[in-house]
Amino acid sequence: MCRLPEAYKSLKPFLKIAEDNAKCNVAVEYWCLRYVYEKALTIDTTSPECKSFICFLMSYLSKLERDNKKDNCFCNKDAAQKYLKRVALRFFQKADLLDRSRRFTIDVAKFYITAANLINVLSFFGDLDNSLIEARKYGRWRGAYLFNIFNDLDYPLPAPEEVNESLEKVRFHGDTTEWDSFYDTYDVFLSGVEIAVPLNYSEIPDDGVSADVQLEEALERFADFNEAFKCGTSAMSELRDQNFADAIFSLENALELMQKYKRM
């Protein structure tokens, strides 16, 4: 994918989902890119960098369509909408299950945010029902709350069990008590980043469009820095045990994670 113009920075979270799914779920990749393409056309189509990006994206979308022309999720919008809804709710319900089972990790926050962004993509097909709108608001709220908790070295409050009827329809319904309480620990923090989070998700205005780019960039850095730290710690342990091949592998993983921050 070519470099994202600054004018399209608000679309970065949707490109990230497309990139993450490029090798494992091309239908999700395609519709996230279609969403980006349509939104980009409403932001800027005149500057050279935006023109170049739009042309590249249009060409890549055409390639995906040619390569997957027999896939129902490409040629049938109703099928695509139903499929993307299942994927979005799968992320949301996985986060809800782990959260309400008190399995607190940074992945739970990421699942919530991904679900909220995929629900945004679903708006490409038409108006969202109330349950999806509530899930988007709740996912943004709970994801931001958990990130702040991890970043502040605090312990999360349990997820609310009583919510409105629309949200209850799409929450996980099953056993949420099978695990003991678990709180992952982190070693690298970004104390300069603070995301404002209201006490209740219903207080979040639902603008229907924007993703919180600041939150998502901070969340990604937080996860990457801590994973790189773990890889470095593993490498030191492996060197002490003279497991040189494993040490090299761990260091290479850490380096790969940190390459994107080289010019920060």
Automatic annotation (TrEMBL):
What is the annotated signal peptide range for this record? none
Give any Gene Ontology cellular component: multivesicular body
Gene Ontology biological process terms in this record: late endosome to vacuole transport via multivesicular body sorting pathway
Domain Vta1/callose synthase N-terminal, first and last residues per copy:
11-147
Pfam families for this protein = Vta1
Which terms are listed as keywords in the entry? Membrane
User: Subcellular localization, per the record?
Assistant: Endomembrane system
- List, alphabetically, the InterPro entries matched: Vta1-like (IPR044538), Vta1/CALS_N (IPR039431), Vta1/CALS_N_sf (IPR023175)
Protein name as it appears in the record: Vacuolar protein sorting-associated protein VTA1-like protein
